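name: query_chain
kind: protein
chains: 1
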Amino acid sequence: MAEQKIKKLVLAYSGGLDTSVILRWLRDYYDCEVVAFCADVGQAEETEGLEAKALGTGASKLVMADLREEFARDFVFPMMRANAVYEGYYLLGTSIARPVIAKAQAEVARAEGADAVAHGATGKGNDQVRFELTYARLAPQLRVVAPWRHPQWPFTGRADMLAYASEKRIPVPVTAEKPYSMDRNLVHVSYEGGILEDPWREPYNDMFRMTVAPEDAPNTPAYVEVDFDGGNPIAINGERLSPAAVIERANKIAGAHGVGRVDLVENRYVGMKSRGVYESPGVTLLTHAHRAVEQLTMDRETMHLRDSLVARYAEMVYYGYWFAPEREALQALIDQAQKNVTGTARIKLYKGGAWIAGRKSPLSLYDPKIASFEEAGGYRQNDAEGFIRLAALRLRARG
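structure:
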């Protein structure tokens, strides 16, 4: 059966190797208008010169959207309120960026009168799922084109694409000397592929963009104070900042001390293991600070219930179910539990490490009189005898 004609398509475009090659291929294969859409989620200098590059590669126009504040406020902060970490290490920087990009891309497609959207994710990875589940929820009427899964896609790997880019004179940031893939946003920079596919091989130090090597970090520790209101970081060292600015400031401070590097062999949603290297300095700092304030302000059973759901929540984000009803329902529970997470944490940064150095809150549940070894504070120690006897009843019966 012949493919349905596409008149106009909106491509999620970064200017990297994959989307640059894909842009040209889509235009030539479908003989259609291709609108390049770039979401600014904190790529910094990577957006410079992008319009000229997109137009030179074959796009009819470039639509750029500054999503940094929306990304931080409506996606990163809700995830941080859950303390979400995937498989013990990964702070989900790429995972959480995809739904905000796909949401805005679908909005551009509607505004442009496009009948299709496309992305550059491969058929082996997680991003294809994250993009397409978001399209399905927010714009089910749009046709989805995934070139890496297309039967006529002529490329088998990055070497083929580099050759094609050279032939078509498409400038790309990937070289044969450093053939790894890089993705940057407010939360992190991720690296994968190429030399990193050998899990025994240590990453090059000059690869990292946001952090200094811990051994090259200052010899004097730094102390940082982070203020929280309702589970959200609102100020650093007493200066109130917007959500995106909080993350940016935290990135600079923690990155200068080598904080936030992670090297992980993770389980992708499609079933395979892959090796990713990440640097998330700011969110690492903010997560430590968030937990410090929670220690004072969260009820024990509420905290333990929330913590029991963190792995499930992280899976939802990693697998691409941000707009699924189960994530939204779980978010409601988390946000209710975060209402009293207000206060200040002091974090010590030194040579790649981050430690809690102090915490305070006007809503603290910590009572030093009760906790003290020096005074009773209204706590009757003899009460523990009956409590322990009842707790031990089933164990005595078993014994």
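note: The two ends are 72 Å apart (CA to CA).
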